[in-house]
Amino acid sequence: MRAYLNLKKYELLRKVGSIKQVAGIEMISFMDGRAKGVQGFDVRNGRLRFTVLSDRALDIGQVEFDGIPFAWLSPVGYSSGYFYEPEADGWQRNFSGGLLTTCGLTQVGEPCVDGSEQLGLHGRISNTPASQVAYAENWDGETLVLSVKGKVGQTVLFGENLEMHRTITTRYGAQTIQIHDRVINQGFQPAPLLFLYHINLGFPLVDEHSYLVCSAGNVTAWEGTSAANLEKFDKIPPPDQNVNEEVIHVDLQPAEDQYCYALLVNPNEELAFFIKFRKQQFPRFSIWKGIREGVYCLGFEPSNCGLNGRLHEKENGQLEWLAPFAERHFEAEFGFLQSTAAIQKFIEVTFGGPA
What we know:
- The chain is mainly β.
- The protein is 8% helix and 43% strand.
- It comes from Brevibacillus fluminis.
- This is DUF4432 family protein.
C-alpha cells in the first residue's frame, strides 16, 4: 500500500497545491463518432480511475485499478443513447459494455410481447440520459469522499412513471466503488419492476486459468448452456471462436455478514474483482460468458428477476410490482484486488478458507 494513500487530511493538504493533484472528479464530453456529445465524469481516487456516463443512465464505463483495466468494452464502444434500437435484440447494437450497464426498469432478458407492448432485450433504462446530475468532492472527517448522483426517468403516457435515483461513491485511496439505486414509482398505478446489473469484466482479469470463487447453492444452466460446461461454470477457458455465449444461474449463499459475494481471480496476474450485495435486494444471480475470439468477457448479473423476459415472469407468477409512490432500493459494492496475498486474505475472511 502506498503510504501517501494513508495520509490524514491535514498532512495530505500540506503537501499538495490542490487536492485534484491526487484525486478528484472532472466533467468530460466525448467528441467523436457514435459517442459524440455524450457527457460524463472522470473519477480518480488515487488508485481507481473510472468513467461515469451521465448520458447513459449514470452507468460506469472503463475502470482502471493501479493503471490496469478491469472492465470489458464491447466492439460497439462508447455510444450515445440516441442510437438505441428498442426492437427485439436491437439493444446489442448500442451495448457498450463497461463495468456496469443497468437493465430495466420494466423489462429484463429475452424480447417478448406483453399485451400490446413490445419489449426489447434488457429494457430502455441504460440508453436514457440522467437529469439533475451533480458531483461532489467532500471531506468526511479525515476521508475525501467522491460522489456522482442524478436521476433517470422511464415514463410513458398512460403507462409507467418510474424514476431511478442513483448515487456512485468512492473514497480517496479506496479499492471499492459503492452504488446505491432508489427506484420510485411516481405514478398512480402499480408498475412492473425488473432490474439487473450487467457487470462486464474483461482481459487481463479475464484470461485462461482465471476462476470464480463464491458460495454456490444450486447451479443451473440457461438455454444453450451444455451440462458439460455447467460443471466448469467457475473456470475461464481460452478464447474459442466455436463457443456460443453461455448463461449459468447460481443460487449464491450469504456469508456470515449476510452479504452475497462473487469473486473473479486471475492467479497469474494476481488480480481479482468482487461484487458484494444483499440477497433480499437481488435474489437472483447469473454468470454470463462470452468466450468467442474478439469478445472474451465474463459478466456478473445480480437481479430481482429471471432472464426470459417480462411475459415469462408474469405467466409464472414471479413478476415484481411496485405500488404507487412506493420505492425499492438496490445497493452493491465493487471491489478490486491486486497481489496474491490480498486475494488469499479476502477469500479466507469472506469464505472461511483458501481458494
